[in-house]
Design a protein that fits this description.
This protein is an alpha/beta fold. It folds into 2 domains: 87 residues, Immunoglobulins (Immunoglobulin-like); 134 residues, OmpA-like domain (60s Ribosomal Protein L30, Chain: A, 2-Layer Sandwich), CATH 3.30.1330.60. The chain is built from 5 helices and 12 strands. The strands form 3 sheets. Strands 1, 4, 7 and 8 form a 4-stranded mixed sheet that branches. A 4-stranded antiparallel sheet has the order 3-2-5-6, with no helix packed on it. Strands 9-12-10-11 form a 4-stranded mixed sheet. The longest helix is centred in the middle third of the chain and has 27 residues. The protein is rod-shaped. The chain starts with a helix and ends in an 8-residue tail after the last strand. The relative contact order is 0.15. About 3% of the residues have low confidence.
Length: 311
């Protein structure tokens, strides 16, 4: 009995020593991770959100200083620390920091470079649609898919979407209508002159100048925007983040100016036999045609206001 009691006492003591030794080995001193968040292009400090995921899976949020870009994070577990830099003003970025096992306190320096968002920076600049249609070009479809993923990853980013028409669709119609009016009016003038010579006082109605021709491009641009809205509908807070801006047709895509109107032929002088010579044929009016292809981008996406979605 006495020996059995002694044996149990020795075993318990050994177990206690083992547990104390194991606990001591597992002790981890605090680790301080600090550094500066800088813009990758300018090197200027950036204030933004920093999410930290500790090796144990515990998550918490921090922020770098707006004026200095400095940040500081303290953890008590060794392993791989994940840092996610994000915000309305920077492109989302993930980095990892290795925290060695150490019973002593340690400081780990980790500067971070980010791509800052700048209002007006172009993200997309393509011929977005088939000519005078709402069908996206293959290039535009591919870039929109990439842009949607970028918006999902950077869920506070605002963008401006600029949509343009392709070609001038009214100028040539206006010129053709004006040319037809002048032709009809010249014929009417000639007919009235002939009636006057016959002492006839009742004349046919005078042709009226053409009315304005409606421009179909604003409707086209509106329809194109509707197509884009349906494509981006799944983006979170889409109404706050995407602004659609209809654009006018650039001057380079406008139809040529109307040609000078040919002057009326003068009354021919009588011939020796008292007959009038046949009047010369009036010059043919050539109606300018609008371009049949698009040479300018019709879909441009830029970074919008760089500010938080919610105050």
């Amino acid at each position: 009995m006495m020996f059995e009691a002694m044996r149990r006492t020795v075993a318990a003591t050994a177990m206690a020593i083992l547990c104390v030794g194991t606990a001591a080995a597992q002790l981890q001193g605090p680790a301080t991770i600090k550094g500066v968040v800088k813009d990758a292009t300018t090197g200027k400090p950036v204030g933004c959100k920093i999410d930290a995921v500790e090796p144990t899976g515990k998550k918490f949020s921090n922020k770098s200083n707006d004026a200095t870009g400095a940040y500081l994070i303290i953890i008590n577990d060794p392993g791989t620390l994940k840092l996610v830099v994000r915000g309305h003003n920077v492109e989302r970025k993930e980095i990892t920091v290795n925290v060695p096992a150490s019973r002593k306190a340690q400081v780990i320096e980790q500067d971070i470079t980010v791509n800052s968002f700048t209002e007006g920076k172009v993200l997309m600049n393509v011929r977005g649609f088939d000519l005078n249609a709402t069908t996206l070009t293959p290039a535009a479809s591919a870039e929109i898919a990439t842009l949607k993923e970028f918006l999902r990853t950077n869920n506070e980013l605002r963008i401006n979407v600029k949509v343009s028409p392709d070609v001038d669709r009214t100028a040539s119609a206006k010129v053709a209508a004006e040319a037809e009016y002048k032709r009809l009016h010249a014929a009417w003038t000639k007919e009235v002159a002939a009636l006057k010579k016959k002492k006839i006082t009742e004349f046919p109605p005078e042709p009226m100048p053409p009315t304005s021709v409606a421009d179909p491009n604003p409707v086209l641009v509106s329809d194109r925007i509707a197509v884009l809205k349906s494509m981006f509908a799944e983006i979170n807070n889409v109404d706050l983040r995407i602004t659609y801006l209809p654009q006018p047709l650039p001057a380079s895509a406008m139809a040529p100016a109307a040609p000078p109107t040919p002057e009326a032929a003068p009354e021919p002088a009588p011939t020796k036999k008292g007959k009038k010579a046949a009047p010369p044929k009036p010059a043919k009016v050539v109606v300018p045609e609008a371009p049949k292809t698009t040479t300018h981008p019709t879909l441009v996406v830029e970074i919008g206001k760089v500010k938080p979605l919610f105050n």
